[in-house]
Amino acid sequence: MTFPKVVTVAKEQYPKSVKKEIKYGTAGFRSNAAELDFVLYRMGLLATLRSQDTGAAIGVMITASHNPVADNGVKLVDPAGEMLAAAWEVHATTLVNAPDDSLDVVLQEIANKAGIDVGKKAMVIVGRDTRPSSEHLRNAAVTGVETAGGQVWDLGIITTPVIHYIVTCHNDGGKYGEPTMEGYYQKISKAFVKLRADGASNGKYEPEILFDGANGVGALAMEEFVGHIGKALNTTRYNKGDGILNHMCGADFVKTQQRWPGGVPEQAGIRCVSVDGDADRIMYSFIDASGKYLMLDGDKIATLVAGYLQELLSASGLKLKLGLVQTAYANGASTEYIQKKLGVPVSCAKTGVKHLHHEAQQYDIGVYFEANGHGTVMFSQAAKDAIRAAAQAKNSSAEKLSGVMDIINETVGDAISDMLFVETVLHARGWSAADWNNAYTDLPNRQMKVTVADRSVITTTDAERVCVTPVGLQDTINKLVSGFSKGRAFVRASGTEDIVRVYAEAPTQEETDKLAVQVACAVHDQAGGTGDRNAILSSFA
Ligand code: 16G
Ligand code: MG
C-alpha cells in the first residue's frame, strides 16, 4: 500500500467525528472548531498530494476569518497564491467524507485520477490565526502532511494574505518578493513611505488613523507594519487581542451593522480602519463634522483606487487596459459612478474571491472588490514590464504606478496592504474621508435571509443576477422590481450558510425595505420556505 500509516493514524489520533456530509466551499471547510480535528488531518494529507501533483509548495491556512471565536476552518492555497483549483475542491470533499477505514484507498484514487507520482517530494506551508483552537488544528494538519510523506514549513500565526504571498514567492523563486514575513513587510512599507516622501500631510489629508484589529492576527500584523512605516502614518491601535475575536468589532461587524466598531473610542474627523479575523477584509468608518456616521466599504474602496489608477495610467501615456470587477452586491451607484463618470469598464462576477480573481485577469490592470471589503488589484506581466520600463525612464506617473504595484498584495485581498493603498490615494488627492465619501451617494439597500427546505433549488445565471430555477421566480421578481422606479433585486443561495440571500436596492430606504420583503416572500412561496412568512412580512415594520 502506498499510504501505509494513514488509516492507523486516523483511527488512533484523528477519527472521523462528524457523520453529516460536509463540503469544501468558497471559504474551504468551516464549522465549530471541535468538529475539525479529522478535517485538518485529512487536509494535511490532501495538501501533500496536491504538492506532488503541482511540483510546488501548497498552503494550508487555518482560520474561520470573521466567524465567532468558537469556529475554525481551513483553506488550501494553490502554487501561484490562488484559491484551490475546482477539481481539487471535489477531491477535498470526497476525502473529508470518506470513512477512516478507506482513507488510503481514497487517497490512492485521487492520486490515480490526477496521475500523481506519490513518491515525489512534497512541501506544505502551514499558517494559522490567533484562535485558541488553531494550534491544536495545526498539529492535526502537520500530522497529515507528515503521514503522507510531505515536509512542513510552519509559519506560525500569520494573516491569510501573508500565507498567499509566501506561497507565491516561494514557488516563483522570489520573483514576486522575498518569501519571508520580513520580505513582505519591507516590500509594502518601503513603497508606501517612498510615495509620500514629500510630506505626510496634503490638503485635507491628515496622516492619522484609528486601527481596529478585531482582536485577531491583523492586530499583530499592524504592530509589525508600525515598526516599518514609522511617522509616515500615525496609527492608534485598538482591539489588539485584549477582547473577544470579531466580537462587536472588525470589518464584518462594521459592514453588517453599519456602525462604529466597539472597543475604539469614537472620534469625529479621524478615519477608523477595521480588519477581519484573518486580515483579508477591510472597512473604513468615519464620523463627519456634523456627527454623521459614514461607512466606506469595498465599493467605495474599489472606486477610489480604480479612479486613481485610471488617472495615473492616462497621465503616463501607457496603453494598458484597466477594469473593475464587482459582484451583484456592488451598490448600483458605485457601478454607475465608475462607468459613467470615470470611464472605467466594469465586469460583474459571481460571489467568491476566485470568480472575481479570474475575471480580473482579463485586464492588464484588474481591480476587484467585493462590497464586504475583500479585494485587490492584479497586474498582467505585460503591464508590469511596461510600467517598470517607463518608471526607469523617469515617467513620473509610471514611477507612482510602480510604487503602487509594490504596496498592493496581488496574491489575494489584504486588509493592511489595501489600507496603505487607500491612504496613498487619499494623500495624493489631498482628500478627507468626507471628500472620498462624496464622490457618489450609495443607493439605499437591504439584505435579507430566507430559510428554505433545500437551498439548491435556487440556481442563477448572469453572475447571479438572474434566477433560473424555481421556474417563474424570476418573472415574479421582475414584476416586483418594476413596481419601483430604479429598483433592483436578486436572490442567490448562500455558499456559506444554509439559507437563500435576498438583495434589494431602490431610491429610498422605505421602498428598498418594501421590495426586499416582497422578494423574500416570493422566495418563501416559490422555493419551499420553511420559516415564518409573517415574520418576513413584518421585518421592518
Ligand atoms: C466566502 C467568500 C467571500 C464571499 C462569501 C459569500 C472567499 C475566499 N470567500 O466567504 O468572497 O463574499 O463567501 O458568502 O471566496 P455567502 O455565499 O454566504 O453569501
Ligand atoms: Mg477573512
UniProtKB/TrEMBL annotation:
User: What catalytic reaction does the record list?
Assistant: N-acetyl-alpha-D-glucosamine 1-phosphate = N-acetyl-D-glucosamine 6-phosphate
List each copy of the Alpha-D-phosphohexomutase alpha/beta/alpha domain by range.
53-86, 110-169
Any GO MF annotation of the entry: phosphoacetylglucosamine mutase activity
Where, by residue number, does Mg(2+) bind?
Answer: S65, D276, D278, D280
UniProt entry tagged with the keyword Phosphoprotein: yes
Output the InterPro entries linked to this UniProt entry.
Answer: A-D-PHexomutase_a/b/a-I, A-D-PHexomutase_a/b/a-I/II/III, A-D-PHexomutase_C, A-D-PHexomutase_C_sf, A-D-PHexomutase_CS, AMG1_III, PAGM
Source domain of life is: Eukaryota
Q: Cofactor note, please?
A: Binds 1 Mg(2+) ion per subunit.
What is an example of a Pfam family matching this protein?
PGM_PMM_IV
Which pathway does this polypeptide act in? Nucleotide-sugar biosynthesis; UDP-N-acetyl-alpha-D-glucosamine biosynthesis; N-acetyl-alpha-D-glucosamine 1-phosphate from alpha-D-glucosamine 6-phosphate (route I): step 2/2
- E.C. code: 5.4.2.3
Q: What keywords is this UniProt entry annotated with?
A: Acetylation, Carbohydrate metabolism, Isomerase, Magnesium, Metal-binding, Phosphoprotein
On whether Acetylation is a keyword of this UniProt record, the answer is yes
- Which cofactors are reported in the record for this sequence? Mg(2+)
Specify the enzyme's EC class, one word: isomerase
Which GO terms are recorded in the biological process aspect for this UniProt protein? carbohydrate metabolic process; UDP-N-acetylglucosamine biosynthetic process
User: What PROSITE patterns does this protein map onto?
Assistant: PGM_PMM
Query: Which residues are responsible for catalysis?
Result: S65
Chain residues that bind substrate: E370, A371, N372, R492, A493, S494, G495, T496, R501
| Limits of the Alpha-D-phosphohexomutase C-terminal domain | 484-520
Give start and end of each Phosphoacetylglucosamine mutase AMG1 domain.
297-431
Q: Please give the family membership noted in the entry.
A: Belongs to the phosphohexose mutase family.
Protein name per Swiss-Prot or TrEMBL: Phosphoacetylglucosamine mutase
* Organism of origin: Petrolisthes manimaculis
